[in-house]
Each structure stands twice: as structure tokens, then as C-alpha cells.
Give the backbone structure.
Amino acid sequence: MPAIYLGLGSNIEPQKNLGLGLKELEKRFGKLEKSSVYRSKAYGFDGDDFLNMVIGLETGLPPGEIYDQTEEIQRMAGRDRFARGYSSRALDIDLLLYDDLVVDEPPIRLPRPDVLRFSFVLGPLAEIAPKLLHPETHQSYQDHWDKFDTGRHPITRESVIL
């Protein structure tokens, strides 16, 4: 079965909304592998800090169906999909990786460019899948994390129970 990784983030009632996201994902996909929860400043706008994490799961569903499921869960949390640009989010769930599939058919882009762009995505991914290879660079996520400039956008591990 394909290994899938999702990024989750929230800065509106984040513990409540991340908890909702995890509960719904587990209900739909079964056992989840969870990273620690990380705090980061809002990126691209002034707003409350985000709590972020990455989860791993296995499913035979194709990427489009996973995307549809995550969209439904985000709506349950009150996500405004029509908000422009970077803004506060009740719940943001992004499909980051689907095995080693490379796809650029919006709204699905795999691997998601955010994986190598943002510390709040790459750090948690390297935590739970350090040896996994990026399908385009063929380097491990731990190698990418080791070279990442964490000073650009620092993250801190949080002791959060979801």
C-alpha cells in the first residue's frame, strides 16, 4: 500500500482543530503515524502562531480521493477555502507525499513544494520519515533537514496532547 504523508496546521483554536483533524483522519484511514507538534510564527501575514505536524498513513485510495477527504475534514473545522493568500486557518491539511509519485495537476502537486520550502513541514516530516527519499532530489528528508536554514522560519517542539 502507498505511504502517504499529510501536513496539518492551525492557528485558530489549534488544539481543538488539530484534534478534530486527527480524529477524522483516523476514522477514515485507520492508524496514523504522528510527528510531534511544532509551533511557528504565521508566515506571510500577521497572525497568531500556528501549531503544525505531519502524519503518515497508508491507503489504497488515489491522490484525488485523499484530497477530497481532506477538503471535507477542513470544511468540518470551518476552513474558508476562499480566503486569499496567506491567512489564519482553522485547519489546513495538505497532501505532501504519495509514495514516490510526481504529479503537477492542480490542485494536486506531488511532492508538495512546501516540503522543501518550510521548516514547519520539513522538520516534522524528517522526524517521522528521516530515511525516506524525496522523489525528485533523491535525498533523504533528514539530509534536507540537516541542510535547512532553520533561522529563516524557526519552529519549536510543543508539549501538546491531541
Notes: The helical segments are 14-29, 63-76, 114-117, 119-128, 141-147. Residues 3-158 form a domain with the Alpha-Beta Plaits fold (CATH 3.30.70.560). The CA atoms of residues 5 and 127 lie 12 Å apart.
